[in-house]
Fold:
Amino acid sequence: MFNNLSILAMSDEAQMVVFIIISTITIVYICGGFFWLAERFTSPTRTYDKNELRAADDEYIPLVGNHPHRLQYSNLVLGDNGIYVRPDIRRNGIYTYIPYNRISKYHIAYQPTTTTRSGAGGAVVGGLLFGVVGAIAGGLATRRQLNSIKELILVIHADEGSSFRINFIDGERTESIIKNRITEYEQLRAYLDNHGVPYTQEVLPSLP
Structure:
């Protein structure tokens, strides 16, 4: 790398180029470290031993059947046979495999915002959002409609009485986060619906 004498011997333009390169490399390292720490301390599996996680994955992922599909935020693995609920501190460490024929139903709960902004920048009045209710329940809501939801929860109920809750939207989130979570919501619903799992729905009361 460059030493102080070699840098001083350069022209002003060359020194500026070297300074930009060094600054860019430093920023990349700092950002990389920040994202590593953020992932480390926000990961839903951060309190688990890696060997324990690997053992659970090795045991349950083969059970879901062909073409296992991982949902990152929900921390689920979907397959042709059922769903693997991975170890997750948000679920008090409970993890299991549930075949679709043992899922009694899934429940959708959502809360429309009072006022939100459309993608074109215009305001959407809360009263109009209740027209989205049927579309969400029927799985036909558009991404723009789903972006008008302040809270979106899906709960999977198993036959033996256990349940697993996923908060896809919980309060104010950035557009990119909402987009990723809505994608997972749509994918999970598609797997459940395609395997004939019934659902119930609930509109949560709006906050004052």
About this structure: The chain is about 40% helix and 25% strand. The chain has two domains: 4-42, 50-203.
